[in-house]
Automatic annotation (TrEMBL):
GO terms for molecular function: hydrolase activity. It comes from the Bacteria. Its EC number is 3.-.-.-. The lineage of its organism: Bacteria, Bacillati, Actinomycetota, Actinomycetes, Streptosporangiales. The active site is at H104. This is HIT-like protein. The keyword Hydrolase applies. A motif (Histidine triad motif) lies at residues 102-106. It comes from Streptomonospora litoralis.
Length: 118
């Protein structure tokens, strides 16, 4: 884990070098709307520090994944989707669809979610 990676898109968003529609900010996390939404509500919740994926954050043992989940729930409440249900997705690795290698949680809601997801 490093504080930031110079070529990382999400590190650039955290630093303010790339614009994003910010939904919520915390000391350790930042949330913004996905530029290619897959649901009426599609928000990415990311740590300010650079972790390449969920597994690396879990190994660090700092409680960051708990904080990301709590922030996602607070956003779901603010977006009025908490009561109807929402999905949290962490893609880990290119085979799972991860394209930006900075830990991020997709908060999806506002429509029915099918199973299996894809």
């Amino acid at each position: 884990m490093t504080t930031s990676e110079p070529d990382c898109l999400f590190c650039k968003i955290v630093a303010g070098g790339v614009p994003a529609e910010i939904v919520r900010e915390g000391e350790r996390v930042l949330a913004f709307r996905d530029i290619n939404p897959q649901a009426p509500t599609h928000v990415l919740v990311i740590p300010r520090e650079h972790y390449p994926d969920a597994a690396s954050a879990a190994r660090a043992g700092t409680g960051l994944l708990d904080e990301i989940a709590a922030e996602a729930h607070a956003i779901a409440e603010a977006e009025d989707i908490a009561s109807t249900g929402y999905r949290l997705v962490f893609n880990t690795g290119s085979g799972a669809g991860q394209t930006v290698f900075h830990l991020h949680c997709h908060l999806l809601g506002g429509r029915g979610m099918e199973w299996p997801p894809g």
